[in-house]
Design goal:
Layout lengths: L1 H5 E3 L1 H16 L6 H24 L4 E6 L4 E2 L4 E9 L5 E7 L12 E5 L4 E8 L5 E5 L2 E6 L5 E7 L3 E6 L2 H12 L19 E7 L11 H7 L3 E6 L5 E7 L7 E2 L2 E2 H18 L3 E7 L3 E8 L4 H10 L10 H11 L5 E5 L5 H17 L1 E7 L2 H8 L5 H26 L3 E5 L4 H15 L3
Parallel strand pairs: 3-11, 14-17, 14-19, 19-20, 20-21
Antiparallel strand pairs: 1-10, 2-4, 4-7, 5-6, 5-9, 8-11, 9-10, 12-13, 15-16, 17-18
Organism: Pelagihabitans pacificus
Protein name: DUF58 domain-containing protein
InterPro entries: DUF58
Length: 442
């Protein structure tokens, strides 16, 4: 049975059969071809048996699929396949990797040929758009000799499971730039400081542009030239990422749900905030408080946040903002920065939740983050060529205007806002965080 399962006929073999069939047909009119056709048939049969002997006398192919411990959601994740041949002849191989069912890809194939004892590597990428468990099936390699009559199937590494976590690659990208203080390279703005905070850092020499109110006169008298006190952002401030998991966050953009955009941004932002010595926590809510992670200032705390984010899922119900307010009032007693990821498509939906948002903003610095509908923006930017297109464009402009009115309404009640495209969420969130820290609002 092992032989039968690994035994395949090469597609070239059917061309050989077609040629023999043509010879036998021609022999009807040219009888001299008839014995030649039988001779070719016997030769093909001998080569068929010889090809089986070549492929099955040794275990000719070795292969290994290298998977990362975790896949990163919404990113291109590299997968590496190493393979080599032990055959003494040139080997033609076809690699078919059974990808997880979530990718819905059934045409994966990589063709290659190997010389005697040659080793090679083959890389490809996958882009998951849902968190969860992804099972890679068999790594199938079909080998054939230069005769290309028979193929032998080799099977390696059956059913490997890899979890897909929130975007670890995106987090590492911002992590590197935060450590090297180069966040502006990926679009993060440099925020001009208004005044300064009161956490002392060091005494340094005065340079043009320093605030003269920070001159340290004792140090100036001692060094006989102007010295100033340098202050830094206040540290160890509690910051919470609040994720709405209600039905409004199920809307997809570029194959990724709004919830996953919020989760990826929360992970990257939490890492940056921890590197800047602030406390970070997380809340996920809909009809109930699904997850609550108190704000802690430890780098290892990021693993806790990552595991909690991995298990978050959207609900099909409207979220209870009153419950969120009651939970914050009971559990978060210190003034904190609250980043609320949610979405409002109509101003009436915002006005229903506005009393709870206003109440939260009285006790904390609240930033409401909601999303532009990029598909509507594309429709608005397109040309209207008929009456129906004009109607669609007018409705799209109305919805777009409502988003801006919602932003103004929140700002009128003293609530910070971010209205962002889904793909720019992380950058705009970190920008707002840096702005609030620079302005000393918490």
């Amino acid at each position: 049975m092992k032989f039968v399962k690994s035994f395949y006929i090469h597609s070239v073999f059917f061309w050989y059969i077609a040629i023999l069939s043509a010879c036998f047909m021609l022999s009807y009119w040219v009888p001299a071809i008839y014995p030649v056709a039988w001779l070719l048939t016997m030769l093909l049969l001998a080569l068929f048996l010889f090809d089986i002997y070549l492929l099955y006398t040794v275990e000719g192919i070795k292969a290994d699929r290298k998977l990362p411990q975790k896949l990163s959601n919404s990113d291109l994740n590299p997968i590496k396949i190493k393979y080599e041949t032990n055959y003494f002849f040139r080997t033609f191989i076809s690699i078919i990797d059974e990808l997880p069912v979530q990718f819905q890809k059934r045409d994966f194939r990589h063709e290659s040929d190997l010389l005697k004892g040659e080793k090679r590597e083959f890389d490809y990428t996958v882009r998951p758009v849902d968190r969860g468990e992804y099972v890679f099936g068999n790594l199938n390699i079909y080998a054939s000799s230069p005769l290309k009559i028979v193929k032998r199937r080799f099977v390696f590494q059956k059913d490997q499971m890899v979890p897909v976590y929130p975007s670890i690659i995106q987090m590492q990208q911002y992590d590197f730039l935060a450590i090297s203080n180069r966040l502006s390279e990926i679009g993060l703005k440099k925020i001009r400081r208004i005044g300064h905070t009161q956490e002392f850092e060091q005494i340094k020499e005065y340079v043009l542009g320093d605030d003269f109110r920070t001159i340290n006169w004792k140090a100036t008298a001692k060094h006989k030239h102007l010295m100033v006190n340098q202050y830094q952002d206040e540290r160890s401030q509690p910051i919470y990422s609040i994720i709405d998991t209600g039905r409004v966050m199920k809307m997809p953009f570029n194959e990724l749900k709004l919830l996953d955009y919020a989760i990826n941004a929360t992970l990257a932002f939490s890492n940056v905030a921890l590197k800047r010595n602030d406390k970070t926590g997380m809340i996920a809510f809909s009809k109930k408080i699904e997850t609550f992670v108190p704000a802690v200032q430890k780098l290892t705390h990021l693993n806790t946040i990552l595991e909690k984010l991995y298990n978050i899922a959207t609900e099909f119900t409207d979220s209870d903002f009153g419950l969120l307010y009651a939970h914050l009032k009971r559990k978060v007693t210190h003034r904190s920065l609250m980043l609320l990821y949610t979405n409002f498509e109509h101003i009436s939906a915002l006005k229903r939740q506005l009393p709870f948002l206003t109440a939260i903003a009285k006790q904390h610095v609240l930033v409401v983050i909601f999303f532009e509908n990029t598909e509507l923006e594309e429709l608005i930017a397109s040309d209207a060529e008929n009456l129906q297109a004009i109607y669609h464009k007018t409705i799209a402009e109305k919805f777009s205007l409502e988003k801006k009115l919602m932003q103004k309404e929140l700002q009128k009640h003293g609530i910070q806002t971010i209205l962002t495209k889904p793909e720019e969420l992380t950058i705009n969130t970190i920008n707002k965080y840096l702005e609030i820290k620079a302005r000393g609002l918490i």
